[in-house]
Task: structure prediction
Amino acid sequence: MKEAELAKYTKVALEKSGLVHWRVSNGPVLHKIGPRTIMKKSQIAGFPDWAGITFYGVFWALELKTAKGRIAPHQQHWIDKINATGGVAEVARSFEEIDDFIAKMVMEY
Result:
């Protein structure tokens, strides 16, 4: 399964859940400056793919990876930082893990 499939599934599942959420674009971003277009790196490299706020005001973030995908050190840094400061951040590698995470955000936080 590809990360794009996980992302598409996550979007639909989050919309159904009612949680406040947004997709975080961490890749290069195109900027138009007059007639020129330049590409700049993201300022928040490594930040999880999805983020949001629970019904009780808890910040959450979800990193999507394939079954064999590896977490880069700068991604792990963000996950650790979010968890250490009162938020909830995890990695999901399947539809089931995505569903479990969303259910936990709706029910527990």
